[in-house]
Amino acid sequence: MELLRFATAGSVDDGKSTLIGRLLYDSKAIFEDQLEAVERVSIQRGNDYTDLALLTDGLRAEREQGITIDVAYRYFATPARKFIIADTPGHVQYTRNMVTGNSTADLTMVLVDARMGIVEQTRRHAFLASLLRVPHLLVCINKMDLVNYDQEVFDRICAEFTAFASRLDVADLTFIPISALKGDNVVTRSTNMDWYQGTSLLHHLETVYIASDRNLIDPRMPVQWVVRPHAAEYHDYRGYAGRIDGGVFRPGDEVLILPSGLTTTIAGIDTFEGPVEEAFAPMSVTMRLADNIDISRGDMICRPHNKPVVGQDLEAMVCWMTDKPLKVGDFMMLKHTTRWVKAVVRDLHYRLDVNTLHRDEGATTLTLNEVGRVALRVTQPLFYDPYRRNRQTGSFILADEGSNITAGAGMLLRPN
Question: Does domain 3-207 have CATH number 2.40.50.180?
Answer without folding.
Answer: no
